[in-house]
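User: Could you check the structure of this?
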Amino acid sequence: MKLLKIKYIALLLSGTLLLGAGCTKFLEEQDPSNLSPDSYFTLPEHAEASVNAVYANLRFQSDGAGIFSANFQLLEAMTGTTTSQTGQNSDLNNLLNLAFNPDNVHIRQWWQALYRGISNANLSIKKIPDINPMDETLRKRYIGEAKFLRALHYYWLVRLWGDVPLLTEPIQNVTAPEVYAGRTSQDSVYMQIVKDLTEAEASGLPNTETSGRASLGAVKSLLASVYLTMAGQPLNKGAAYYKLAADKANEVITSGSYSLFTRYMDLHNPSTKNRGEHIFMAQYSASVSDARNGFQGILLPNFGGISAYGTQVGSTVPTVSFFDSFEDGDKRTEEQQFFYTKYYTDGNGPLKDLNAPYIYKHFDTTANGTFGIKGTAQSGLNWPLLRYAEVLLIYAEAQNEVGGPTAATIAALKQIRDRAKLTTPATFTQAAFREAVWRERWHELCYEGKSWFDMVRLRKVYNESTQGFDNFVGHKFSYGPTLAEKHLLVPLPTLEYNNNPSLRPQNPGYTN
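Assistant: Sure, the predicted C-alpha cells are below.
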C-alpha cells in the first residue's frame, strides 16, 4: 500500500481541494480531467488511492511559504524558541515578532491545506462504502484511516482558529450551501474529532504499521493528546478528561508495541522511520520528486557551507536562550544530538565551527553529507507527528492531574530523562511534578510543532531564564516581542474572510 506517488484530481471551491487520487496504473489509462466522484469510486483500488491523497496532504508543512520559508514555521515562529538568520520573508518575520495579520501567507496556507485534507477525507468516507465488490475488512480499514486523518486535520484547525466550519460531507458543486458554511463551536468540533477517532479505533487497524499508514497505536496516541487538550484551555473539561487522556496513553504504553530509541540519532535515521519510537509520521521519499523532504535547507545555517544543498538559509534556528535552558549535562545538548554547533565543510569536508547552535533533530546526513561522503541534496526523511516520548509525557501529566504523582508517572518521566542522562527525583509534590513534565515537553518535543499548542492549552509559557512558567499573556520572548490575549488564536485568512461572510466576525484583536 504505497503512499508516496500521489497526483491530485481536484475541484477548487473557496480555496478547498475536494478530490484526490493515487498515481497508479488504472489512473494512467484514462484522462484524469474526465474523472468525477461518481465515476471514480468504482474499484477497491480507488478507495486506497483516495485515502492516499489525504496522507499525501500531510506534506503541506514542508511546502514553501514565500522566499526562504515553509509552512511548518508557523508553529515554531510563535513560540519564542526560534529565530531567523534571514530577513527576506516578511510573513515569517511578522510571525517571529508576533506582528502577523490576516494576510499572512503561512496562516492562509495552513487553512487551505487543512481543509483540502478534510475535503479529501470526507469524499473517501462518503464514497468508499458504496464500492462493490470490495473486501469488507479492507473497506472498514480505509474508512478508519480517513477518519483518523480527518480528525488530525481538524485538531490542527480548532487549536489554531477556535470556532471553524465543521464539514463532514463532500462538497461537489459551487452552489452548495456548505461552500459558505459558518463557524461551529470548538466544543462541537472536538466532539467530532473524538467521534472520528473512536470509530477509527474500532476499524480493525493493526497495532503498529511500518508502511506509514495509520495504526491503532497512532489513533490511541492522538486521542490521548486530544483528551489532554480538552482537559485544559479553552474547554476546561478538567479531571474527567485528564483521566481519559491518562487511560488512553496508558493503553499505548502497556501494549508493548513502542519503545524509546536508545540513540537520539535514530529519531532521524531513515532505517528507523515508522517504527520503534515513531508512531505516526508524514511520509517523504528522496526518489519521488514531488514527495521530497523540503525542511533541510530551511534548517541549515545561513550560507553555512556545510551541506550538499546549494540553498542554506537558516530561517529557523534555535535561540541561544532556549539552547541554554537545558539542564547541565543534558545529553540532548551534546554535539549532534538535538543540536550541532559544527559540521563538515560542504557536508563532507573538514570540520567547521558554526559559532551557534542549529537543529540536528531533523538533520538528514544522506542528503546533506557526512565526513568523506558527499550528500545527495535529496531528502526522504520523514517528519514526526506522533512519537512514543510524547505518549509517556501525556500519561505523566494527565495522571498527575488526576491524583498526583505516582510511581508509574515518575517512571514515565524518568524514561525520558534517563535517555538524556539526567537524574530524576524519587518524590515530587503534585505542583513540582506538573512543571517538571511541562519542562520536559518543551525540551524533548522541541521543534516538532508541539510547543505552541502547549502554550495555548496551558495558558503558560516556559521561561528560559528561570526554568519556571509565566502566564501566556504578558510573557516576553528573549528577543523582545510580548504575547497578548489575541495571540491565543490566529486570524481568519483575508481570502477566506472576504469570500465567505458566514465566517465573521474575525477572531478577537485582528482586523481585515
